[in-house]
Amino acid sequence: MAITTHPAGIGAASGDDRQVASSIAALITDAPVPHPTLLKTFGAMMAREFRVLGRNAPSTFIRAVMQPLLFAFVFAYVLPKIGSGFGSAGGGGGAAGGVTFATILVPGLMGSMFLMQGMFGTTMPLVMEFSWQRTIEDRALAPVPISVLAVQKITAGAIQALIGAAIVFPVVYWVHAPGQGPHIAGVNWPLLIVVMIFASTMTASLGLLLGTVVDPRKIQMVFAVVLLPLTMLGCVYYPWSALHVIRWLQIVVLFNPMVYMTEGLRAALTPGLGHMALWAILVALVGGTVVFGALAVRTFRNRVVN
Amino acid sequence: MTAMTVQPPGNQPPVPAKAQAAIRTKELRKTYKSSRGDVDAVRGIDLDVPAGEFFGLLGPNGAGKSTTIGMLTTLVAPTGGAAWVAGHDVIREPVAVKRRIGVVTQNNTLDMQLTVAENLQFRSRFFGLPKGVAARRAEQLIDAFGLGDRKNAMASDLSGGQARRLMIARALVHQPDVLFLDEPTAGLDPQTRVNLWDILQVLHGQGQTILLTTHYMEEAEALCDRIAVVDHGQVLAEGSLDELLADAGAQTIVTVRYEEPVPDGLAERAGLAGRPGVTKVETDGEQLRVFSGDPEGLLGDLVNIGAANGLHVRDASQAKPSLESAFLSLTGREYRE
After folding, report:
1. CB–CB of B172 and A28 under 8 A?
2. Could you tell me which of B180, B234, B235, B237 has the C-alpha nearest to residue B211?
């Protein structure tokens, strides 16, 4: 081995240096040739989401299960037990007469979970990615248009929303006082699938939109100003038809996208209990998904490429 | 400097390298609009970097280097002019550009939710490598960049130097035509910096086209075939290190600061400009600065000239020809890092 002069103290022996140099050189001479396609890149990005979701599974699960668990516990167990009369809390609407509150709660809670999980699934990661290190640039340099990255983010958020909403079923079935379980019969499966797909996509689009237009430092406010009113006035705890006694409110809540999600779920899960006209629900869900989705892709692109 | 690019002498036909320019910009501009007024970050930059070159954008912080690299890597939308990377228009064909570039940003953009190996594997898969090939490529990169013992560590747990090495490794995953590095050694300790320099020189030796921005003059001097000196969003000078030094008239700079203000016309009366080798004489308050290719005895003469005119020397310095003196001569300002 030839001895090369090397300043003392810097680096390892020259042989090692040469090895390192040749292995770095090999990175260029001995490199696989990539053939990216839109589909492969999209698939790889989704695989990355699932890897992260899997790694965070315990915390994701706890986040997704706590809300329905507590709601079911309070509304389907505690309140009926103490006899608050909540069991028939439908006012003069279609929910009156022997319908358990759990029955009304299932579609409402699912809608609420769509919103929570869909928004958590998109808005929160986005806030991190757009913060000072702008880690979003990592994904933005993948060989696809930025709009594809936006669609991928919506898809990932929608999947989280679907998982979150699905958790509602077992929780509400198991957690209730005797005789206070939900009565769900005559489920319209095709409608349920359509509503779930559009509800999850719409909330994820909404989440992406908020995550891109809101200053990361003010994201706390979004939850107070957006999430809370959308949920409380989203026909989660009462069917829309029951609001007819407060006519002005019944009209105002029509601007709340959440209403169409919960009413759509009612139409699919408990068609016998009365719900908003199906055409209105579908127009709002499909239209909302398209409008919020398009807006979100636009604001996302503007935010990534400045 | 050892690795010089082929500079065709004046009378020979030029090498047809222009056709395969790795990077070309024309009047490239970026103005940031804000409610507090517009900010011209880049004001019309023209660059022409042939394939295989190690090109440096040198300038102080805030000179517009990062914005320029942002536009070349499709992450910043230009507000004027045009740019092509690897033959593709950065505005009209951003996806084609992204396929052919590797980018090491100044900020740490590693995926903190993933391990070191996963960062490389997923980036490989983003670029269409099948899962198995991606895993092997990741192994190869981990070995070459000496990250073997950190392979399964989360990216968020890496030291500054390790993170930078992983970012360079990640940028090389898909064998990019052009490698962009934005301030790759900022904030690193000297040892790590020298290691990174070694890596970059090996890559360049293999024909990798590299565009690097730096505010460290010695980094540009040590690595780059050609350098563009940038400040306030404009290219002040461009060329090889030798050309820059020659063009800037940056011979040795002798500066003498007196206790008293230099009287008007002193330099003329003393005939400083007429001395052999002197290209420029500047008077600034108490300071007299002479640029000369023949500095022999100049410092002593300045002291004597001062003494003859009742000026007392406070301090004196002599700067050898360097990028620093070139920058000083180009801008009339001390280089601020």
Report:
1. yes
2. B180
Q: Does the beta carbon of A81 lie under 8 angstroms from any beta carbon of chain B?
A: no
Per residue, the 3-state secondary structure of B220-284, as one string, reads HHHHCCEEEEEECCEEEEEECHHHHHHHCCCCEEEEEEECCCCCCCHHHHCCHHHCCCEEEEEEE
Name the average pLDDT for chain A.
Answer: 84
B116: exposed, middle or buried (Cβ count in 10 Å: 0-12, 13-18, 19+): buried
Range of weakest confidence among A245-259, B4-18, B90-104, B140-154: B4-18
Min Cα–Cα distance to chain A from B263, Å: 50
ipTM value: 0.83
Give, rounded to a whole angstrom, the gap between the first and last alpha carbons of chain A.
54
How far apart are the CA of B207 and the nearest CA of chain A, in angstroms? 9
- Asked if A251 is an interface residue toward chain B (Cβ–Cβ < 8 A), one would say no
Largest pairwise CA distance in chain B: 80
Structural domains of chain B ordered from first start: 19-110+158-246 (3.40.50.300), 251-320 (3.30.70.100)
**Domain locations in chain A as residue ranges:** 37-304
Q: What is the per-residue pLDDT for B297?
A: 83
pLDDT in tens, A146-173: 999 999 999 999 999 998 888 888 888 8
Residues above pLDDT 70, as percent of chain B: 90
**Closest Cβ–Cβ partner in A32, A137, A144 for B129:** A32
pLDDT at B114 over 80: yes
> Looking at this protein, which amino acid is placed at residue B103?
V
Chain-chain contact of B114 with A40 (C-beta, under 8 angstroms): no
